[in-house]
Amino acid sequence: MDSQLIEELSLNSWQPLSTLLYDGWVIRFANGYTKRANSISPIYYSTYDLNAKIEQCEQIYLNQGLLPAFKITPFVKPENLDEHLNERDYSRVDLTSVQTAELKKVKEPVLHSIKLDETVNTEWVNHFYRLNHVEEKYKDTIVKMLSNIATKKCLISLYYKEEVVACGLGVIEREHIGLYDIVTDSKFRRQGFAEQLILNLLKWGKEKRAKYSYLAVLLNNNPALKLYAKIGFTERYRYWYRVKNA
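-> structure tokens emitted (246 positions)
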């Protein structure tokens, strides 16, 4: 499985509101909702003067009312960008593990009290807002981001006693299903619901001819790390963000 492909798929699957391609750097904007959608992914070759280019990117983000942020993966161009940003007073935050699994090795779910939707709908979105405690200012942005996903997607909800206790998003491209925003009601955590939600989502992926899955998880989220390991995910690479100090 090609790790750089996973990075490219993840950019496609978590859509911002707008994108600017600047000399090999992918600059993304989504009104500040998540760093993934409001950061620079420098994954293609760069030719301009590095300092001048960073300064231009900083101004672009400041004009949007956002702090400049760079996503630092093993594929950054130029390779010394992380060290350069550190010298320019950028802090390192959100150390993240990108993990993958082969779907043929993943077990079948035992709970089937789920609802699958392949289009954005108010019911799923409202459950997501409630479970994820989304701020009012981001609600319209989230709907637009979900609607911008161009490939096959699945919005999944898991029910317990007629109540939605977990939900999540899966996006398929090139035989890979990416998992995003898996969230469980705080009152129902550590009861196996997140595992069953994911297994049902991966089952849907297999039915749509996906062969692999990937996800990103913060390295300080020990419960999630244990859950993904139990399902069969293993680490492929790590990334973090460099964010300009205010």
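The chain has a mean pLDDT of 96.
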